[in-house]
Amino acid sequence: MARGEGAEWIDMEERDAWRPYVPLRLLPLRERISRVAFIGEARLSEAEIIRSPQMGNPLVLRPSELDAMTELWDLSVMEPATGQVVAPRTPQSRVALPVAPAVDAVGQLPDPAELAERLAKCGREALVQQMLASMILGYEPRKWNERCALPHDGAAFVARLEALAFGAAAPRPGQFVNEFELPSREPTEKAGWPDFAVLWPTRALMIELKTEKASHRTGQLEHYLDLAAHHYPQFERDLIYVTPTMPVVQPVETFGGRFAHVMWNDVGQIIHDLWASVDAGAHTALVDALLDSLAELRTQPAVVSVPATVSNEPGESDPLKLAALVQRDQRQRGVPVDFVDPEDMEDYRLGLRDALSLQPVVDGTRITHVEPWRWRLASGGVALTDQGRRAGYELRLSYYRAGASQGTSERRSTATTPPRVMPTERACAACGLLKHVGQFAQGSDRCRDCD
Q1: Tens digits of residue pLDDT in 263-300
Q2: What is the DSSP string of 293-337?
Q3: 327 Cβ contact list (under 8 Å, min separation 6)
């Protein structure tokens, strides 16, 4: 470290020797650099890099800041404790850091036959989405809303898709998200879940996939753009809508973002150009299966998914029986339902909320203080259902002293892990992470960790 609390120079004579800049001593870390502060003049007379693991949402080093530093530091990376040269480097070398924690490549490409069997009840859209996500990442993603490092082939696909939608674009590192969450602003609002998102330090590209014309829903695109503008007001926001051949769709309002409607015929050609010539076993089988599925869009009817539903009849719905148990012992419980996708879970949550608002009597218990909420891995704690363990999201029921459906501002949950009230979160303009509004100074678009 060049400077920091408790840090000392390795070579005091070297420290006192005049030079146009102060040499940096960098320790390779297994974890990313989470905070950088510049001190002094722009020529980098001094620099301070601190990793603070105790911070709840640590910052990250921006690529532009990293580039500025790599122009000036020594040609050797040294370990401060020993002074040993770890790795020689050249002024031209660069280190790419993600804008937020990203998951490294895990797992492998799925077998298309096994994948089709596993997703048989989910419909063709879910199958095509999972195959394409696997091709982009090089392995099958399982968790919803998980930020994954975008590999070279995936970046090439995204760049070609951007060029098709908006004009020329070059491949660049970023983060890929399968099932991207745009949280609702209040409990009665439906959250947004674009199928894909690609995130960069100052830009969010959302991608919504439709394999069936009948899947197009009025207002869905506007809702995504509206929520994105709310949570990421300082970001460039783009939405690409991929559908079968159909009349071009244009949102009534884009809320300051860009929108493009492209067809699967053109996207399929990109997939063919990038991957069809690669001969690598499971890779080839998955590409062939994906292209076959896209070719079938013109000839075969859709395989309709079967969404989860909530019965309004007290005593006939397991979730209502669970709600009665929560009403009696005030302990939260997970709803053991396997959802087709996050949109299915969101529809189920709102349906269950409506059913509970009627204060039904189940097993002799009137349910008056129980509400459903979305548990996510980031909420902390351990998943209570197979759905939560598999996807990182599940539906839970919790007891609220103020009563169900009476407004989140006055409720206090007695559950072990209370639901987060997403309307109180916003995206930081510096690090891009969603954080509680209490972490922002009044009038600032940067969280306190970034200031």
Answers
A1: 999 999 999 998 887 665 667 888 899 999 888 886 66
A2: HHHGGGTS------------STTS-HHHHHHHHHHHH---EE---
A3: 365, 366, 367, 368, 369, 370, 399
Residue with tokens 């199928």: 195
For the segment 67-99, what is each residue's pLDDT rounded down to a tens digit? 555 444 444 444 444 444 444 333 333 333 334
Q: Among 136, 110, 381, 437, which residue's Cα sits nearest to residue 274?
A: 136
Residue 53 has which token pair?
A: 């693991």
Which helix (H) or strand (E) segment holds residue 200: the answer is: strand 196-200
Instruction: In whole angstroms, give the CA distance from residue 430 to residue 349.
Output: 33
Question: Helix, strand, or coil here: 193?
Answer: coil
Q: State the burial class of residue 72 (Cβ atoms within 10 Å of its Cβ: 0-12, 13-18, 19+).
A: middle
Q: Could you give the CA distance from residue 130 to residue 290 in angstroms, rounded to a whole number?
A: 10
Residues 52-72 pLDDT 10s: 334 443 344 445 555 555 444
pTM: predicted TM-score of the whole model, two decimal places: 0.66
Share of residues in the chain with pLDDT > 90 (%)? 43
Domain ranges of the chain: 12-88, 112-298, 318-420
Q: Per-residue pLDDT averaged across 215-221, rounded?
A: 91
Q: How far apart are CA 87 and CA 103, in angstroms?
A: 25
Higher pLDDT, residue 179 or 301: 179
For residue 260, the model assigns a pLDDT of 96
Say which DSSP state 213 is in. G
The token pair that represents 191 in the structure block: 């959250």
Task: List all residues 6 or more positions away from 8 whose beta carbon is below 8 Å from its beta carbon.
Answer: none
E-strand ranges in 21-89 read 35-39, 46-50, 76-78, 85-88
Half-sphere exposure of 147 (CA within 13 A, CB side): 15
